[in-house]
Amino acid sequence: MTGDKVVVGIGDAEDSEGAIRWGAAEAASHGLPLHLVHAFVWAEFRVPLGPSDVAPGLRAAADKIVAAALDLARKFEPGVPVTACRVDGFPAPVLLAESRTAEVIVIGSRDAGRALGLLVGSTGMSLAAHAHCPVVVVRPTEEALVGNRVVIGYDGSPAADAAVDFGIDYARRHGLVPRIVSVLPDDEDDDLSAALRAHEGARTAEVVQVTGHPAELLLEWAADAQLLVVGSRGRGGFTSLLLGSVSQTVLHQAACPVAVIPTAALESPQARWPGTVRH
Ligand SMILES: Nc1ncnc2c1ncn2[C@@H]1O[C@H](COP(=O)(O)OP(=O)(O)OP(=O)(O)O)[C@@H](O)[C@H]1O
Ligand SMILES: [Mg+2]
Questions:
Q1: What mean pLDDT comes out for the span 64-87?
Q2: Pocket flag, ligand 1, residue 226 (CB < 6 Å)
Q3: 3 state SS of 186
Q4: Spatial CA neighbour of 147 closest among 256, 37, 18, 7
Q5: Ligand 1 pocket: which of 135, 152, 155 to mutate (most atoms <8 Å of CB)?
């Protein structure tokens, strides 16, 4: 464990309830404090905000969001120490800075845009690509989740190795069953189970190897998941892309929360999770 708190990024109140609930439970499980952060974007616009009393009004509205989030977190986990603040800036840079000292960073996703299948906004995508700790994106409607699995997408890459350790640790702390899913190309009969033996705890996991379309099959096998865990990149060769196609698709389409282990979290000086295999 390297972070000293669980951080939740607060957007507007409705989108954030699921993230606050998830973050509070995770803070309780880790025995860490919870820190809620609201990025106040208006301060960044170098344009007049209209009548001189508008800006303070916007600040007051932002402070209300922060206070409501604080109340909610205390209601969810009364035993967890909680702090909350408003930080002037755009959400992505504000939360990226927080990720340097966080154990995990949690954000909500929106319901708007569901028709397009795009549930995760630019903040989520940017964090998943660049954060220094794992990023969890939580859907607004978490109550409906069924099943007790933590599904981990494994393609043999260093990020997927970290995803295995993160997912197994999460499953152990929450009394869930880890399921490691490897989707192999049709023309390849690679067996990734030997690589998995290097992971402490992988022996207790259900291991699934199937052939077909990786993102599609991961989503199918995550139908009974409480959490789906992937790396930000995999074995694909396009290094100019910050987020691989599989992680992008599952971020947008999974019904359950998605944890992404960004490349920068792997490069932190100390290994975050014991047992992480480096290639
Ligand atoms: N075939 C797969 N089976 C299971 N999980 C996978 C598979 N491919 C990717 N994943 C999961 O998704 C994560 C991100 O991989 P992704 O494929 O999105 O990135 P990439 O390989 O760098 O890019 P791309 O495949 O788009 O060229 C991996 O770390 C792993 O957790
Ligand atoms: Mg790939």
A1: 96
A2: no
A3: coil
A4: 256
A5: 155
